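BACKBONE GEOMETRY TOKENS
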Amino acid sequence: MTVTENLSVPDIENLAHRLGRRSLVFVGLMGAGKTVIGRRVADALKLPFIDSDHEIETVSRMTVPDLFAAYGESEFRSLERRVIARLLKSGPRVVSTGGGAFMSAQTRRAVARRGISVWLKADLPTLMERVGRRSNRPLLNNDDPEGVMRCLMDERYPLYAEADIVVHSRNEAKEVIVAEVIAALDDHLQNQAPKGEDERRKDTRS
């Protein structure tokens, strides 16, 4: 399955136009694949891609683990909110956010105003397999990382569920997940389209 299996190339190129000034914002837990999938979706839509954690590290000149260690989670979240708000003002683009970003009501409101949110939803075994490959996860630096991940799922999944689009992230070819995101975005935009817009779009394809 490829990105263009269900949508033609013109359809996909038109998605970015239909986004207008809105950004596509990926949310979900660490290990869900937000950066990997987000970057490929951005390529497909010919939009710029940015990882909010990388942007935070750029503006602070510190790594995320170092920020957590030096200032604590509360200060990190405050910086995260400001950075994401700024990124959303410069759309359209594809933005990958940190796992805790969508927990902020302020950030959720900003995303709702200026973007379309996509939750990459993954199960516990998938997440643990992926995060085990990297050691730069401040929230998991303890004796029971799986227990912490379970708690994060219980706490965060109800709020992630408020996202505009939900796509299941799993051990499948990345192209499949990207295609599902593209198709879900197309469906979402069609549902938002003013009456008659879809008919006009269909006429232009004939």
